[in-house]
């Protein structure tokens, strides 16, 4: 698969798209293989974290949300689900699986920040990443 | 001291140990991180495997060192 000409594309758009949907920044740059890989791994990690934590790990009132927000669209989409599930039963904050689920979702957010920066840098500095004219 | 280390290793290898959940997490981190560094899928796989093994063994070594320290002090 040949990446599109880097000079025709906006790095900022890649950054924003990568936040809205993990991997979308790479898809915008024509790197569909990596886009699918990043989407599956990051969204999978986020959803696995939700499942491990009983669906109540992505809550905006927790400081962890700042990290989870890095996963962008999927994390925001899961907030209403977590808020609804948190009203059904009291949350055991000390539960190890809940902690692990929180960690999974937070790491998903951090990884997406890394992926977003990679999508940005590949378009902003094509000389250094070997993207020019590729 | 050796008994304490053996106890730690037994605990780490038991099925109830929640630390097992760190391995898939570590694997995902390894693949995503190395996929941002390399383009060739074979290079990504090899580098991610190397990263995964290094981090896993590093954490195990750290657990052993902390066990030794906790026994001594």
List the defining traits of the structure above.
heterodimer; A: 134 residues; mainly alpha; 7 helices; elongated; B: 73 residues; 3 helices
The 3D shape of chain A can be described as elongated
- Low-confidence residue ranges of chain B: none
- Termini separation of chain A (Å)? 10 Å
Poorly predicted parts of chain A: none
Largest β sheet strand count, sense and barrel closure of chain A: none
Major β-sheet of chain B, in short?
A: none
How much of the polypeptide of chain A forms β-strand, as a percent range? under 5%
- How many domains of chain B? 1
| Separate helix tally of chain A | 7
Number of strands of chain A: 0
Give an overview in words.
The complex is a heterodimer of chains A (134) and B (73). Chain A is mainly α and 134 residues long. Helix content of chain A is 67%, strand content 0%. The longest helix of chain A is centred in the last third of the chain and has 29 residues, at 96-124. The model of chain A has no long low-confidence stretch (mean pLDDT 87). With 73 residues, chain B is mainly alpha-helical. Chain B contains 3 helices and no strands. Chain B has helices at residues 2-13, 22-35, 41-72. The mean pLDDT of chain B is 86. The A-B interface holds A 33-34, 37-38, 41-42, 44-45, 48, 52, 96-97, 100, 103-104, 107, 111, 114-115, 118 and B 18, 21, 24-25, 28-29, 31-33, 35-36, 41.
Would you kindly provide a brief summary of this structure?
Chain A is mainly alpha-helical and 134 residues long.
């Amino acid at each position: 698969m040949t990446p599109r000409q880097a000079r025709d594309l906006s790095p900022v758009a890649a950054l924003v798209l990568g936040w809205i949907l993990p991997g979308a920044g790479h898809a915008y740059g024509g790197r569909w293989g990596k886009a699918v890989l990043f989407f599956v791994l990051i969204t999978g990690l986020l959803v696995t974290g939700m499942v491990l934590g009983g669906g109540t790990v992505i809550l905006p009132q927790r400081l962890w949300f700042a990290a989870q927000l890095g996963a962008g669209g999927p994390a925001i989409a899961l907030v209403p689900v977590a808020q609804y599930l948190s009203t059904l039963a009291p949350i055991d904050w000390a539960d190890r699986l809940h902690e692990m689920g929180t960690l999974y979702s937070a790491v998903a957010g951090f990884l997406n920040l890394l992926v977003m920066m990679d999508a940005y840098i590949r378009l902003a500095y094509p000389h250094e990443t070997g993207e020019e004219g590729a | 001291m050796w008994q304490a280390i053996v106890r730690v290793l037994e605990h780490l290898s038991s099925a109830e140990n929640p630390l097992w959940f760190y391995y898939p997490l570590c694997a995902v981190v390894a693949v995503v991180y190395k996929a941002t560094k390399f383009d060739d899928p074979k290079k990504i796989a090899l580098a991610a495997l190397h990263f995964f093994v290094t981090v896993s063994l590093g954490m195990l070594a750290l657990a052993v060192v902390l066990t030794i320290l906790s026994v001594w002090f």
